[in-house]
Amino acid sequence: MQRPEKHRIRSAFDRAAASYDAAAVLQRAVCARLLALRPEASSATPHILDAGCGTGYGARLLRERWPQARISAADFAASMVARTAADGIDCVLADIEALPFRPACFDGYWSSLTVQWCDNRRVLAEAARVLKPNGWLALSTLGEDTYRELRSAFAGIDRHQHTLDFSAADQLADAAHAARLQQVSLHRETITLHYPDLRSLLGAVKAIGANALGPGRRSGMMGKAAWAALSSAYEQHRTAAGLPASYDVILLSGHK
Ligand SMILES: C[S@@+](CC[C@H](N)C(=O)[O-])C[C@H]1O[C@@H](n2cnc3c(N)ncnc32)[C@H](O)[C@@H]1O
What we know:
Its EC number is 2.1.1.197. This protein is an alpha/beta fold. It is built from nine helices and seven strands. S-adenosylmethionine (SAM) binds next to α1, α2 and α3.
C-alpha cells in the first residue's frame, strides 16, 4: 500500500484548519455514528484520547457525552492543534503512530477519519499500548469503495492516482487482532454526499485538507480538454440529488 509522504499530508491539513469546520459534513456524520457505538464510560472520571483530533469536533462530543471525563487530544498538524487547544482541550502536537504517552494511561481511545492517512498496524499497536486493561477503542476510517465515482470518471482520462489507497476492512480487523485487542467488531456503511458540480465536490475535499495524494499523483493543473472529459464522465453518475461522492465508512470497536 502506497501512502503520501507524511510532510505532504501534514501540510495539507495545516493549510485546511480555517476552512475545515464549514466543509466537514462527512466528519460530523461519522463522529455521530462512532459515538453511538460507545458503551458507558468504564470509570466515573475516564481519561479519553482523541487521536487525530483535527479542529476538535470529536473531543468536544466526548466532553459533552462524559462531562466528568478528562479529554486529551493529539494531531500532527500545528494549526489543528491550535484550534482544539483554543477550546480548552488538552491537545498535543504528535504523530499517532508514535504517541508521546506512557503505557496504559487512557480508559478510552477515539480516532475518527484519521487512520486512512496512517499505517493501520502502527496506529493500532500504539492504541493498545496507551490503553489501560479493559480500556475501549472506537475508530472510524474509510474503505476501498470510497470515491468510486471519482476513480471511475478518471479511468478514461489518465493513469495517475487520484484518491488515497484505502485499506480493505479485513486489513483493519487484522491490525486490531495483531495489536491483541479483544471483542473486535466492524461495521461498514456507505455514506453518499451530493454536490451541484464537480468543482464544488473537489473543492470540499480540499477544504478539509484531504487532497494530499500518493506518489502516482498527477502533477500540475489539468488541461481544459481533460477537465471537460472528466466532468462529462462524472456526469454519468448524477442523480436527482446532484453529483454523488461515496464514502465507504468503516467503524471499528474493541477493548484491550
Ligand atoms: C479528516 S481529519 C479528521 C479530524 C477529526 N478526527 C474529525 O473527525 O473531524 C484527519 C486529521 O488527522 C490528522 N492526522 C493525519 N495523520 C496523522 C498522524 N499520523 N498523526 C497525527 N495526526 C494525523 C490530520 O492532521 C487531520 O487533522
